[in-house]
Specification:
alpha/beta; six-stranded mixed sheet; four-stranded parallel sheet; 37% helix; globular; binds ligand F0G
Length: 418
């Protein structure tokens, strides 16, 4: 079973108080000397570990790099990213029936998704280890972020996408930012298998969330939520609800909380309950939570309109499942109809998100109706990508344009008649 206990005891391989630890066998490695994504000995997932864990006073500035004291490097290839809004949605809050509901809209990052937080760090580490070609498998957003940050860093980028299953906005971004785009005859999980093989063969530097440095950047979502919520609401939220695909964010948020507890910045009772939501057609994490499994079982067939989370083999499950369990959270699945309904609900409050993002709100509504979430809870829902990422889904969920003649009278007649 994964050992996620933190220690600040510095091994000899540490570089400036930073090292990598295997969460399965506890082997430690120097952070930047060689390229590795998993443990040399047992192939377990790696985590970045620190000799010094920061307190709130150690943070200053804005965005991801405000939190450099909690990160393995102190600056990165930046566009800049982070510092996203924590929206109030009073009508939705009342309708769902919780004491407080805030929406952390990660779609407001430079390329329109939370992936930018991981890329600012991951691309910087890639530069430090001296690679020139970056690669990822992607359901779309990772490829857009990699293309933009790789481009900014002056590096070659290669992205593998599941053919016909990536939203138009995301392909357009990857394309214009200059990535070489390979459309694979297979789903995201197949793309990730291939890109992992390419990385092992030294063909490219892997920037999927298997890369432990990317998750360090995504940890700042948790730091921002806690600071913003505390400053505006006077306490930390009871629960954070998020969409789950490869379970990178779930793993990153749990690491954020573990480090804050370890440093003494928050009490363990203050850790929000991590609540992961998947689409019903791609829900291996929900299956693992419901059956109390130690790991997920790969789903070969996956399908959902929320293409960003159309994933059957969440590689970060060994880090994320304990996060959901240890924080007292849960996991739930929602239908595509529930996702579309939540996308409309958010849009009616002015918050434009892509389908996968709306899964968090759809899941909260479902769990509230089932009584799993209490009416007196304070909740933050994470929305991970911008509405314009998937214009087709937005248009289908929205209202259809009405053709009218090109005269004022014609417009008035139409308004009166309909
Ligand atoms: N929401 C959006 C909009 C995403 O793009 C993703 C993942 C997730 C949620 C799931 O996050 O993997 O941390 O659980 N997108 C990846 C990609 C897989 O390739 O863009 P996770």
């Amino acid at each position: 079973m994964a050992n996620l206990e933190l220690t600040t005891e510095e091994p000899a391989c540490a570089d400036n108080g930073v090292w990598l630890t295997c969460i399965e066998c506890s082997e430690t490695f120097a952070p930047f000397d060689d390229i590795r994504y998993t443990c040399d000995d047992c192939d377990g997932l790696l985590e970045v570990r620190y000799a010094d864990l920061p307190m709130w006073d150690d943070f200053n500035g804005r965005g991801v790099w405000r939190y450099s004291a909690a990160l393995p490097v102190d600056s990165g290839v930046s566009l800049p990213e982070g510092d996203t809004p924590l929206h109030n949605v009073p009508r939705l809050e009342e309708d769902i029936g919780v004491s407080r509901l805030r929406i952390k809209h990660e779609g407001m990052n430079p390329t329109g998704s939370f992936k930018d937080r991981g890329m600012t760090l991951g691309v910087e580490v890639a530069k430090r280890v001296g690679v020139d070609r970056l690669a990822c498998a992607s359901t779309g957003n990772t490829s857009a972020a990699l293309a933009a940050y790789g481009g900014r860093g002056g590096m070659e980028t290669l992205v593998l996408l599941p053919q016909g299953k990536v939203a138009a906005g995301k392909i357009a971004q990857a394309s214009l930012h200059g990535a070489r785009i390979l459309e694979v005859d297979g789903n995201f999980d197949t793309c990730l298998d291939i890109v992992q093989d390419l990385a092992q063969r030294g063909e490219a530097y892997l920037l999927n969330s298997l890369n432990p440095f990317r998750l360090e950047g995504q940890k700042t979502i948790g730091l921002e939520i806690l600071e913003q919520f505390r400053d505006e609401e006077g306490e930390y939220p009871d629960r954070i609800v998020l969409p789950v695909g490869n379970a990178g964010n779930t793993a990153a948020l749990y690491k954020c909380f573990r480090e804050l507890v370890e440093s003494g910045a928050i009490e363990s009772e203050e850790v929000p309950k991590l609540t992961g939501i998947q689409a019903a057609g791609a829900a291996p994490m929900v299956e693992a939570i419901e059956n109390d499994w130690e790991d997920t079982e790969r789903w070969e067939e996956v399908e959902t309109r929320a293409t960003a989370i159309r994933i059957g083999n969440p590689v970060n499950a060994p880090k994320a499942l304990p996060g959901i369990r240890e924080t007292g959270g849960t996991a739930a699945m929602v239908t595509d109809e529930q996702i579309t309904e939540a996308q409309r609900d958010l849009a009616s409050e002015g918050v434009g998100v892509e389908p996968a993002s709306a899964a968090s709100v759809a899941g909260l509504r479902k769990l509230r109706e089932e009584g799993v979430v209490d009416s007196d809870e304070t909740v933050v829902c994470l929305t991970t990508g911008h509405l314009l990422k998937d214009p087709e889904a937005a248009a289908e969920a929205g209202v259809a344009p009405e053709p009218v003649s090109g005269t004022t009278e014609g417009v008035l007649d139409h308004l009166e008649a309909n």
